[in-house]
Write a structure and sequence with these properties.
Number of domains of chain B: 2
Number of helices of chain A: 5
Oligomer: heterodimer
Distance between the termini of chain A: 82 Å
Helix content of chain B: over 70%
Shape of chain A: elongated
CATH superfamily of the largest domain in chain B: RNA polymerase sigma factor, region 2, helix turn helix motif
Low-confidence stretches of chain A: none
Order of helices and strands of chain B: HHHHHEHHHH
Distance between the termini of chain B: 43 Å
Shape of chain B: globular
Low-confidence stretches of chain B: 111-118
Strand content of chain A: under 5%
Helix content of chain A: 55-70%
Mean pLDDT of chain B: 85
Structural class of chain B: mainly alpha
Structural class of chain A: mainly alpha
CATH architecture of the largest domain in chain B: Orthogonal Bundle
């Protein structure tokens, strides 16, 4: 005799498999893509809701860049009586912020997303791992290009 | 272990957030990924809620078509999976009501004759275990079947189920208890010599 708790447990843990027919599955997916294309507006990225979001992101990026530039140009801040010194923004962070800001100016949110992918794609396991020297040289070149 | 599970859940939710963001901007890849990620879960739920395989397929198909059409209007509060499962449950409930109405006017039997259970162009096939549970659940009144399935297989709370069924939480819990009692007698009856 099975108790109600047994029924509860066996239903919860039952391995209920469904096998999906590939042919019809593919047709349904095609249909969904078609429905999506028909119902999409011509320029969804330019809608007001997206624009306000993009402006907020641009403002955040701009603030980060201004702070980073101020720190890098003025050098380390004057020693203050406080025991801890403010942390200096690294070259990598600065270059990342600059490259993202540049991408945003050139191509908006999509370009920022693409830039992110490219940046993080370089750190994947299957990619050739560059040495620290190579990275610094690359970043210095990037910064020089941006200053021109 | 709990930390790893929570981390996995967070990663899934993060992926869903990115997918929704892209989907709302018209990304075809995002729609395909959402479809491939959740279609099996939705079909399984529909299979448990509706005895007829064709109805289960139609419900999931309709949910995905509505989803693909509603990209710009979509305002997601909870998880994407929860949202899609709720859509399937609502759609299945409506279909069940329509089927009951058809039965009262005697059209259902004719429709069943016209559309056999297995067709060459089948989207899904059930495992033996799924078929067994689907048959057992089909013996329950629909509301009881829905509560027990949504609670145990879709992980929904009684409060949420009660809201979707427009009843009190106690009523939902009562339906759950009745459902378990009936399933118990069904399975114990099967085991008797």
């Amino acid at each position: 005799m099975r108790s109600e708790q047994d029924i509860e447990r066996s239903f919860k843990q039952a391995n209920l498999q469904v096998t999906i027919g590939a042919e019809r599955d593919g047709r349904i997916l095609d249909e969904l893509v078609e429905v999506q294309c028909k119902s999409a507006s011509p320029h969804p990225a330019l809608r007001p809701a997206s624009r306000s979001w993009a402006l907020s992101l641009a403002a955040v990026v701009a603030v980060v860049i201004v702070i980073a530039l101020l720190v890098s140009r003025n050098g380390p801040p004057e020693p203050e009586p406080a025991p801890s010194r403010p942390q200096i923004v690294s070259r990598i962070e600065l270059a990342t912020a600059i490259s993202l800001e540049k991408a945003f100016r050139q191509g908006g949110i999509e370009a920022v997303e693409k830039q992110y992918k490219e940046t993080f794609g370089a750190f994947r396991a299957d990619a050739k791992t560059p040495s620290v020297d190579e990275l610094l040289t690359h970043l210095e070149n990037e910064i020089t290009d941006l200053k021109r | 272990m709990t930390v790893i599970l929570n981390l996995g859940k967070s990663v899934r939710m993060l992926e869903d957030t990115v997918l929704i963001w892209r989907f709302k901007r018209g990304s075809r890849e995002a729609l395909c990924r959402i479809y491939e990620k959740y279609r099996t879960d939705l079909l399984r739920l529909a299979a448990l809620l509706l005895r007829d395989k064709g109805d289960a397929e139609d419900v999931v198909h309709d949910v995905f078509v509505s989803f693909a059409r509603s990209a710009e209007m979509l305002r997601l509060v909870g998880s994407l999976k929860g949202y899609l499962l709720t859509c399937v449950a609502n759609n299945a409930r409506n279909r069940n009501r329509a089927r009951q109405r058809r039965q009262t006017v005697g059209l259902d039997e004719a429709a069943e004759l016209a559309s056999p259970d297995t067709t060459p162009d089948q989207w899904i096939a059930y495992s033996e275990e799924l078929q067994r549970w689907s048959d057992a659940l089909a013996e329950l009144p629909y509301e009881q079947r829905e509560v027990v399935t949504l609670h145990l297989r879709a992980g929904m709370t009684f409060r949420r189920i009660a809201r979707s069924q427009a009843v009190s939480v106690n009523t939902a819990k009562g339906r759950y208890r009745y459902a378990l009692a009936r399933l118990r007698s069904t399975f114990n009856g099967e085991l008797e010599p």
